[in-house]
Amino acid sequence: MTAQPAGTGPLLLLVPFTATSLVLLLAVAALPALLLQPAPQVRAEPSAAAGAGWAVARTARGAWLLNGAPIAQAGLGRSLRARPKGIAVLRFLPSAALTSGEVAASLAWLRHHSQLPVVLEPQGVAS
After folding, report:
1. DSSP per-residue string spanning 80-125
2. d(CA 45, CA 91)
3. DSSP helix/strand/coil, 41
4. What are the φ and ψ backbone dihedral angles of 66, each rounded to 5 degrees?
5. Are 120 and 92 within 8 A, CB to CB?
């Protein structure tokens, strides 16, 4: 039986095997922490939460509501131009049945006719 040169044999395979095992072990151990991200939280605007604004909703049929009361688009435009004192924000609540294009068009219309900042609320009206 002949002697093997130094640095060969089973010890030569032990180092890459150990390194690979450690990398895989750390990757598997870190996987749950990477997958468990905190859920995003919706924060209300301070002025909207204080009730210092108007709530404008758009239904799936295209009707406008101002603070829960039906209003024609022309009347809403006049109300937005002649806003009373103390109103700081306009909260827009679109129907969930509206397409993103319809929501964008309604939001653009509100921003064009209002001097107030318009905030898109995360949950709109049901229909």
Report:
1. HHTPPTT--EEEEEE-TTS-HHHHHHHHHHHHHH-SS-EEE-SS--
2. 10
3. coil
4. -115, 110
5. yes
Q: Do the beta carbons of residue 82 and residue 112 sit within 8 Å?
A: no
If one counts every other C-beta atom within 10 angstroms of the C-beta of residue 22, the result is: 10
The CB-side HSE value for 24 (13 A sphere, CA atoms) comes to: 6
pLDDT digits (tens), the chain, 127 positions: 555 565 567 778 888 899 999 999 998 988 888 788 777 666 655 544 445 688 999 999 989 999 989 999 999 999 888 876 788 888 999 998 999 999 999 999 999 998 888 898 876 555 4
In which order are the strands placed within the sheet that holds 118-120? Answer: 69-71, 64-66, 53-58, 89-94, 118-120
Q: What is the DSSP letter of 5?
A: P
In the numeric block, which tokens belong to residue 105?
């068009």
Q: How many Å apart are CA 107 and CA 118, to the nearest integer?
A: 8
For residues 123 and 77, what is the distance between their CA atoms, to the nearest angstrom? 23
